[in-house]
Automatic annotation (TrEMBL):
Protein name (record): Cytochrome P450
PANTHER family: C-22 STEROL DESATURASE ERG5, CYTOCHROME P450 26
One Pfam entry name: p450
InterPro entries given in the database record: Cyt_P450, Cyt_P450_CS, Cyt_P450_E_grp-I, Cyt_P450_sf
Taxonomic lineage: Eukaryota, Fungi, Dikarya, Basidiomycota, Agaricomycotina
Transmembrane feature ranges: 31-53, 93-112
Alphabetical UniProt keywords: Heme, Iron, Membrane, Metal-binding, Monooxygenase, Oxidoreductase, Transmembrane, Transmembrane helix
């Protein structure tokens, strides 16, 4: 069969008629005519073919899901991801329980409903958490947080002893001591300058020193805690969803790696010192001590050969999991109480009742258990403004998430927690701060625990959730009896963009003063 290789100024599709009159004829763009016959012509043709293929693959993966019919070539929704807003995400979530987007040819399925969110979180055979591209460079690829399946379950089981009630009881005294020191420092600063001050960085410092004190006790010097706190912000910035992924000098990832090296140096030293202290018959005074005593106990049958480096990596993963989320929860707790003086009044009345007016008496886990209204305040604050709105997962294989849709293998699938936590049927007036909804055991909030996804669900549910909520409650309890604070409302005070949930920045300005009634 003869093939006509003549490239004329038009392209045609032969018909079945005898005279071969073209059914379609369209001109080749002039810029292609200038390069025809050249390697540039071939290159342009290949690029156009790849762009067409990109659209075809996107539409094939998307199928009937809501989302843009076509994706912006190459970058997709990249510009939106650079400045994400709650309005944008709410629009995406409202488009359907499952919806699709693409960013740099990464196909992403967004899951907005409680049912789909829980299914993703509880389907380890189909999906696993996938942090940002730079996460393994920063946290180290051998870190336990990247384990999956049975190995993850077994490793996590060995860490559960660090968050038992007995262990948490040890941590209370450390938390209260550090909290009181920082609150006194806040008040001293306010005395010098009574103007409203942003509390994000000072709250993060409080949270960091508390975490390191709980994790390492006296096995880490105070100046080391200050150094880790100072450098940790580089890690926070490098773990943003969209970032330059290469660790070149001057980049966020490079700075984060240097910060990680500093943190691991001190955490390894703490692990080494703790092993020595426990070997010499010391009593547990921090998480490391409790860990070492547990694995050396006569009834312990799990793994015991943890190097200083591995223990340091575990503690570093706890810092990663807690620093941003707990700081956010603490900051919004302060803001909610300032915005609702009637609720603050109830918190203080409960403090007076439980502590019988003796605010110098050390707090204990048993006393914190009696602060039921304060616990409701913390739980409600975390519901109204959840520190984590969504968690990226990766489909490790084709994931039949619904009867009529299968998430393609290697796609991202992202469960959202916000709509579950703002479900009007479960939480009437969902945007309002109403701690009382948690006081009635028969309330819709308490009878639908599957909606409360603040700490996730399934095998990767937050291992330290009791510790996290207790720490926020302890700080708010101490602050409520020591000082007054007013919220200086700014346009950034409330949930206007998605970054604000984790990084309130200058949005939360508080005017502090000592509470003379205490």
């Amino acid at each position: 069969m003869a093939v006509n290789m003549d490239r004329s100024a038009s392209a045609s599709i032969p018909s079945s008629t005898a005279d071969n009159v073209p059914l379609y004829s369209f001109p080749i763009p002039s810029f292609l005519g200038l390069v025809k016959g050249s390697s540039l012509y071939t290159t342009v043709a290949i690029v156009l073919s790849l762009l067409v293929l990109e659209q075809a693959v996107y539409r094939y993966k998307k199928r009937h899901l809501p989302g843009a019919s076509w994706t912006i070539p190459i970058i997709g929704k990249f510009t939106d991801s650079m400045s994400p807003s709650m309005e944008g995400y709410k629009k995406q979530w409202a488009s359907g329980a499952l919806s699709a987007i693409s960013v740099f040819n990464i196909f992403i399925v967004m899951a907005s409903s409680k049912e789909y969110a829980r299914k993703i979180l509880n389907s380890p055979t189909y999906a696993e958490p996938c942090l940002v591209h730079s996460a393994k460079q920063i946290l180290l690829p051998e870190n336990w947080v990247f384990l999956t399946g049975k190995s993850h379950v077994e490793y996590r089981r060995g860490l559960n002893a660090l968050f038992t009630r007995k262990a948490i009881g040890i941590y209370v005294a450390i938390q209260e001591s550090i909290c009181n020191k920082h609150l006194e420092r806040w008040l001293a600063t306010a005395k010098k300058d009574p103007a409203s001050q942003p509390i994000m960085m000072i709250a993060r410092h409080l949270n960091m020193e508390t975490s390191l004190g709980v994790f390492c006790g006296n096995h880490i010097p105070e100046h080391a805690a200050d150094e880790i706190n100072e450098k940790y912000w580089a890690i926070t910035q490098a773990l943003e969803l969209v970032n330059f992924p290469l660790a070149l000098p001057g980049t966020k990832v490079y700075k984060a790696i240097q910060a990680r090296k500093v943190a691991l140096h001190w955490l390894e030293l703490a692990a080494h010192n703790s092993k020595i202290a426990m070997a010499n018959g010391g009593q547990p005074e921090c998480m490391l001590d409790e860990w070492i005593q547990t694995i050396n106990g006569p009834g312990y049958k799990g793994r015991k050969d943890f190097s200083d480096h591995e223990m340091a990596m575990v503690l570093f993963s706890f810092l990663f999991a807690s620093q941003d989320a707990m700081s956010s929860g603490l900051i919004y707790g302060f803001q909610h109480l300032a915005d609702h003086p009637e609720i603050m009044k109830k918190v203080r009345e409960e403090q007076d009742h439980v502590r019988q007016g003796n605010f110098s008496k050390p707090l204990t886990l048993e006393l914190l258990d009696q602060m039921t209204y304060l616990q409701a305040v913390v739980k409600e604050s975390l519901r109204v403004v959840p520190p984590v709105l969504m968690v990226p997962y990766k489909a490790t294989r084709a994931f039949p998430i619904s009867d009529d849709y299968t998430v393609p293998a290697n796609s991202m699938v992202i469960p959202s927690f916000f709509l579950s936590l703002h479900d009007e049927e479960v939480y009437p007036s969902p945007d309002k701060f109403i701690p009382e909804r948690w006081l009635d055991p028969e309330s819709s909030a308490n009878t639908n625990p599957q909606n409360y996804l603040v700490f996730g669900s399934g095998p990767h549910r937050c291992i330290g959730l009791e510790y996290a909520t207790m720490n926020i409650a302890l700080v708010l309890a101490a602050a409520a009896v020591k000082m007054n604070w007013e919220h200086d409302v700014t346009p950034q005070s409330y949930l206007s963009d998605i970054i604000a949930t984790v990084f309130p920045k200058d949005g939360c300005l508080l005017k502090l003063s000592p509470r003379t009634e205490a």
